[in-house]
Amino acid sequence: MALRVVNGPGGINKGSMVSVVQELSRQTSSSTDPSAPGIILANTGELWWWPEGKKALSPTPALAVPQKSMVHHGRVFNPKLHSISKNESPEAHIQYVLNDVLLELVPPTARIDIVGIGLGADHATKTLDRPDTWTVLGHRINTLSLLGSTTSIDELSHEPFKEFLPRRARAYITDEAPVLTPLAQPGGNPNTASFTQQGCTVYSSSEAYYVDCILINSRAPIFDWIQEVALAGHDYHHPAVAAVDPHVPTDEEWAAGGFDEAWKNLPEFVKPSLGYAISSEAHEHCNVLWGVQEFAESQIMKQSEEHD
Questions:
Q1: N or C: which end of the chain has fewer CB within 10 A?
Q2: How big is the chain by its Cα radius of gyration, in Å?
Q3: In this protein, which residues make up the domain named Arb2 (predicted)?
Q4: Taking the model in full, what pTM does it have?
């Protein structure tokens, strides 16, 4: 999910779907079924088929497959060789998972929880907005969790799906507020600069910058809500919340923010010196220009004194 975590503190388990699967394996499917829920992973990145290697690749490794020589420009994309039927693009892959894979692998009586991240969330939203998809899956979807989604409710057209969003969907966005701070009601929040037009209640993920880290850092509270809905059953309706508007600094706070007392009180020898790295020739040229300027100023002052 996040290479910045896989290659850093947390390692592979935390930065990949390993931690997600471990968290979900501790949940129960419903109030009457204590078994752990089944999990299907949609991989929207690896859609370039490598015939020689017999596996799918993401865009970057696809550019690194062996060439005939070092001077070859690369592989020409051949849809017949390098694309996977019904999975030619990330959106097509999401459609295939929802329209084909779920119907093939999931029992018809099972309820479905969908978690989308970034563009995956946008593609899932647009796929569920299709009448043919919603007619088949709509009555089976338990929850929809949109992490970092930027698809507006105004872009959707299928009314049954739009009515579902405020009842059983949540959006989690990048924000510095503590996790689960309600940022907007289903109608959005005009008092914040963040995008809150997803059509459902919007919460802070507490991840301030990276969408790919939302599920990693806040998976426990996100999955807790999914578990809550699973135990509540068909009668669940998302409760109304009071959105917390972001703090707007007063004029006094703005003024205080532009003047740092701590910096002012530091001794001069502690403050770092600032300068420019220039060549010795450029430095000599600057000295000449400064000398010319000083000479010109002195001549002007001399002439003004003579006139006086």
A1: C
A2: 29
A3: 2-179
A4: 0.77
